[in-house]
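Handover notes (outgoing to incoming on-call)

Open items:
1. DUF4248 domain-containing protein: sequence verified, structure written out, both below. Nothing else pending on this one.
2. Nothing else urgent.
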Amino acid sequence: MDSFVIRTYGRTELAQIYCPNLCPEAAFRKLKHWIDLCPDLRDRLSALGGSSRSRSYTPAQVRLIVAALGEP
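DUF4248 domain-containing protein structure tokens:
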């Protein structure tokens, strides 16, 4: 498998990279759950401009997610 690249990802796109065997909706719910389990991660993502209505993660937000959850 290729090395994971930090770039802008759609939220479902990133979720499916973490959970490739789930349907897109379930993968997104799973990623959201994992993010909520990490202390302060949701707040740090929001501080970088994210909201529950955002459809994508910026490279800076992806870095935070990967730092908290590990590389997919």
